[in-house]
Design a protein that fits this description.
The chain is α+β, with helices and mostly antiparallel strands and about 210 residues long. It has five helices and eight strands, in the order βααβββαβββααβ.
């Protein structure tokens, strides 16, 4: 039997998750969007950032490597045998937790992409321009002007599903598991690209 918790991701300022696409004269880099033009954070990104916080917590004795491997899974392979005919042993295992994409809640989606046929998703984005400064002259280098599409501050919801039996074996109750997950979420302070420019500052918590 599966269980599910929702995580609320709240961005405090502009944030950026790149799509890897360009848009000609409009922008050199675009935000990642779904089929309706709405921004989202991939589930694997959410999982990765929370796992990184679990590894940080492990250094303080709050998690064990075994617990992290069980929750998030193990990825990788090992090479055995001689170098001429080495055997590759796959070590990849699925974790107990499964993360959905972090998306706008349905109430917000219905306003932005409603039944009136007017898609208002364009109002969520801003264009930021930057240029490289020559350290010797203090002036902008020719051809260095770049434009990047970013998203305005908003709240996203990510669903975390898990096997209740596996959680029961590892924790005394789902409430205790929730407390540990909420603790990891409280350590998250930024997500996405261009963090050195101050983007992606956020908070995360287990939603009620």
């Amino acid at each position: 039997m599966s269980g599910e918790l929702n995580l609320k991701l709240r961005f405090k300022g502009y944030w950026y998750i790149g799509s890897g696409q360009e848009a000609g004269a409009y922008a050199d880099s675009l935000m990642l969007k779904d089929s309706e033009g709405l921004p989202y954070v991939p589930g694997k990104t959410v999982k990765g950032i929370i796992k990184s916080k679990a590894l940080l917590a492990m250094r303080n004795g709050l998690f064990s490597q075994n617990e992290i491997d069980a929750l998030f899974g193990v990825e990788g392979s090992s090479i055995t045998g001689n170098t001429d005919k080495a055997d590759i042993d796959e070590l990849s295992t699925m974790g107990i937790l499964s993360f959905s994409n972090a998306q706008l809640p349905e109430s917000s989606r219905s306003i932005l992409v409603g039944s009136d046929g007017q898609n208002k998703s364009r109002f969520l984005y801003r264009l930021i321009q930057s240029t490289k400064i020559d350290e010797k002259t203090g002036t902008a280098e020719g051809g260095s002007l770049r434009s990047m599409e970013v998203c305005v501050p908003l709240d996203l919801i990510c669903s975390v599903s898990y096997d209740r039996e596996s959680i029961a074996v590892r924790y005394e109750s789902e409430d205790k598991f929730r407390e540990k997950l909420d603790m990891l979420c409280s350590l998250v302070s930024e997500i996405g690209g261009k963090r050195r420019r101050g983007m992606g500052q956020c908070t995360m918590e287990v939603a009620e």
